[in-house]
Amino acid sequence: MRINQMILVSVFALISFSCQKKISLKEIKAQTSEGIFQMLVEIPSGTNAKIEYNKELKDFKIDQKNGKDRYINYLSYPGNYGFIPHSVQSKKEGGDGDALDVLLISKKLKTGTIVQFKPLGYLKLRDEGELDIKIIGVPIDEKLKIISAENFKDFSTDYRSARRIIQLWFENYSDDDVDILGWYDENATIDLINDSINEEETK
Q: Which residues pair with residue 101 across a beta bridge?
């Protein structure tokens, strides 16, 4: 039964994003002209397939490990997961060299959706010895919102249990050794994103 379920999930995931047009990161800015941050959704909320954007193919594929598609063997993603185009977690600062990850707390969005968001804060963790940053955000579009938090204080006070759930999820969703290093507010997050974009542009 477990194998059949995984096959069905795999087929559904492939159908859901295989027909989309190819996306070039050159067409997407990290910020709008008004200074609003943007992210590209890879993994829709409620999905357990490890979908990733491939720069060379300009398309989305399920990541593979040892020749097999990767799935989260835990609760599905608690939000829409993706990254900020043209950002990078600097290896000089202990990062993995990849783009900054974003977990967007919103209604479910399709793979390949470009969405404007407001950062509430970020969770810093160490994954297998490498620094890893998980930005938590909410959509600018009111129709996509599911919580009313506008900043880290709102999120920590009014949605304390949601914050705890997110932290527990990142601690347990993979087989890697993960250490939680702390939470940071929206101002620290904005500075982090701006620095990461500058880092990418100077590469």
A: 83, 134
Q: DSSP secondary structure string, 4-55?
A: HHHHHHHHHHHHHHHTSPP--GGG--SB-TT--EEEEEEE-TT--B-EEEET
Residue 125, pLDDT > 70, answer yes
Q: What are the domain boundaries of the chain? A: 29-48+72-201
What is the signed CA dihedral for 55, 196, 132, 156, rounded to 10 degrees? -120
110 contact partners, CB below 8 Å, separation of at least 6 = 16, 17, 20, 41, 44
As a whole number, mean pLDDT of residues 137-155 equals 99
DSSP annotation of 71: B
Q: What confidence tens digit (pLDDT) does each residue in 24-68 have?
A: 998 899 999 999 999 999 999 999 999 999 999 999 999 998 889
Phi then psi dihedrals of residue 197, to 5 deg = -70, -45
Kindly give the pairing relationship between strand 130-139 and strand 114-127.
Answer: antiparallel
Is the CATH code 3.90.80.10 the one for domain 29-48+72-201? yes
More confident residue, 122 or 13: 122
Contact (CB, 8 A) for 181 and 125: yes
Whole-angstrom distance, CA of residue 195 vs CA of residue 190: 9
Q: Give the number of other CB atoms < 10 A from CB of residue 94.
A: 12
Is the pLDDT confidence value at 70 over 90? yes
* Statement: residue 203 has pLDDT above 70: no
